[in-house]
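User: What would this chain look like folded?
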Amino acid sequence: MLNPSRLEDLKRKMKSNFDAGKVAGCSLLVCRKGEETYLEHGFANVERRDPVRRDTIFRLYSMTKPITMTAVMQLYERGLVYLEDPLYEFIPEFRDMPVGIAEPDGSVRYGKPRRPITIKHLLTMTSGLSYPGEGDAGERSVYQALEKMEESGEDAPTLEKARRVAKEACLSFHPGERWKYGLSHDIAAAVVEVVSGQRYGEYLKENIFAPLEMVDTAFFVSPEKHARFTRAHEWKGGAYTECEGVTFLKNYLSQPAYESGGGGLVSTIDDYAHFCEMLLNGGTRRGQRILGRKTIEMMRTDQLTEAQRADFGWTERGYGYGLGMRTHLRPWTINGSAGEFGWDGMMGTWMAVDPAEEMYVVYMQNMMPYNNCGMRMMPILYAALD
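Assistant: Here's the prediction, encoded as structure tokens.
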């Protein structure tokens, strides 16, 4: 399965990352042709010296996104959503959302979009919806809209927050003309709520988590599991320290009103392995059908135009972008297989599914800032395949 000497290289890499302050604790699970290898190193809580274990609960951040794509594509398979449907058919407030156009003098002109946002624009991150930031007009407007809600003390539910963004923010560009990482998948979660008539978390539990036996995956950590929840760490002043702020801990300890389809879930390495096993097996796990085989093929097919690909940061690594996941077009900087697909998260979580090698990989850590440790494991891992 894995060459024993190369397996030692993986162990040494994990230890060296810990020694260098790149991770406080991490775990790696590789399954190839049904045979599993599991490795771990470091601490879930450095202060208490609690070791990372298989049942340690991690924040997924953007590794939530592939699960959201699965939810949307389930509705697609049931004929409830078509990828070319305008978003405003589900959330009418998006019909009039303007595009913020920068003028030479630094002012912003607001124009009508050349085409409506579609469901596919959401799934491919080509909607024009930005994450909050200090950059273009779209980023600033989303920041202001979300900041306004936060200052009011309002914890708006998923669908209501989507509506507020549509009414109070603007797009960074005309839908379909560029690629930009942003709120697209959070809005897709709101679409799931509209179509299903359920809270987003309830839909996921009923249609994905329960069938796949993902027993520790949710939008918060219930009280009886708090001891298993990893701390979010950073390397500061030559030592590991816990990240400050309620965002990293307290916001996860009770049911939130807002269930973020772009980055809100927590999970364990085994739970997420069940999800990857389903993707590798063409949509099934232990007799439970979650998606169709042809749907997964479409999800891992590059969907970007040349213009959109110019904005996609993984292009120089040989990747394109499918529906919510990177897809390996050719070995370029990673010695992997064409057709490998997956995604990662802000605190270093990583997943990869490689149909050619009948393999999936799940890597877990919760460390700031993002440091590519999961991706940097892949060349060692591929070299270990006999």
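The radius of gyration is 20 Å. If you want, I can go into more detail on any region.
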